[in-house]
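Run: sequence + magnesium ion -> complex structure.
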Amino acid sequence: MPVAAGRDPRYLSHALAGRNRARSPDPPEATSKTRMARIVMKFGGTSVADLDRIRNVAGRVKREVDAGNQVAVVVSAMAGTTNQLVKWCQDLSPLHDAREYDTVVATGEQVTIGLLAIALQTIGVDARSWQGWQIPIRTDDAHGKARVEEIEGGVLIERMAMGQVPVIAGFQGIGPDNRVTTLGRGGSDLSAVAIAAAVKADRCDIYTDVDGIYTTDPRIVPRARKLPAVAYEEMLELASVGAKVLQTRSVELAMKQRVRVQVLSSFEDKPGESLPGSLVVDEDEIVEQPLVTGVAYSRDEAKVTLRRVPDKPGIAALVFGPLSAANVNVDMIVQNLGADGTTDMTFTVGKADLPRARDVLEKVRAEIGFEAMVTDPEVAKISIVGIGMRSHAGVAATMFKALAEKGINIQVISTSEIKTSVLVGSEYTELAVRALHSAYGLDAEG
Ligand code: ASP
Ligand code: MG
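>> structure
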């Protein structure tokens, strides 16, 4: 097992908690040119939606193997399968047992690993399927949304060193009770990153139905550009504000474990041609850092305003304490200055949480003593994101000016180190995104 020599094949929970793993001895560039690389390739549901696409995936994998790389593959269920499985559980009983839910929904991935292994063997690639429990991928007991705690990478590393391709079921693991667990919807991205960390892969390639990460949604701005590289932190902000390319938890794990992730398309594929996607990497790896990397938007929030709240100590705790106890996430907050001993307080909650938020606040209304509650679901949050913002002043001012020039009223503003967000009327979403994309010079030439 020459390649594995000196590597610790175990991937432990304390590592998950933030301990840095040892870097592989060769820098990634040297690795890909001078010796084989170890790559985890992940294919989502649309990439394995039917037998033709599974054959196409097998061809992709074969090319990496033929190039001399060690490859492990992680797959999702065929598109639509998991939705169907979830629905069956819900139709039988809305309050179904979470262990049995996992038993049902984990089956989608079992089908695709077997089919892909057969497709690979058919074209002469040595391959073997692996369910989560066979590796094992150990998780906690939070059935339906389990956390990965430990992966035994040793057996996978051994097989890869022998030239065999492990084909691994994403989305699933095994809990402390020895029962199958699943990691939450979209969880096979997380499986892929965790496997990549466990086998100390040089790269984790996530194949999906888009060919990379863009400066904004190309459906809104046709001149959006594909980004060659994005920092982990930027990707986290972009993911949480609406760019739905990678599951958020998988990016968090990649950042902790320093797994280099590449997002690329499994569709635009011409044999012999390699189409680079977007890398999600440490910011040190990004040579040219623009001020603003991307413009994101979200229509998933709703605005709540409490009018004439008494302006005295303890009021914010009275408002936000009960909301948090009811599991309502609050995002943006503004509080105005009051002249008559009262103040208006505005904040946003997830649109789906709005009814619950109203209910909670009505119940504590007398205690807080506000005059009225006004809610508005017709809002959009527009955000500019970029690690370049850390070191530059005036980035937000450009944003406000660009929006003002389009006559767009800003309702709420919030900022973090690498992000500025504004809340606007939802009818301005496209206009605002386009204006900001141009204002920061992100439009492609031509
Ligand atoms: N099949 C699972 C889902 O649809 C996991 C995944 O695709 O990432 O959520
Ligand atoms: Mg996905």
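>> summary
The mean pLDDT is 89. The chain has 15 helices and 21 strands.
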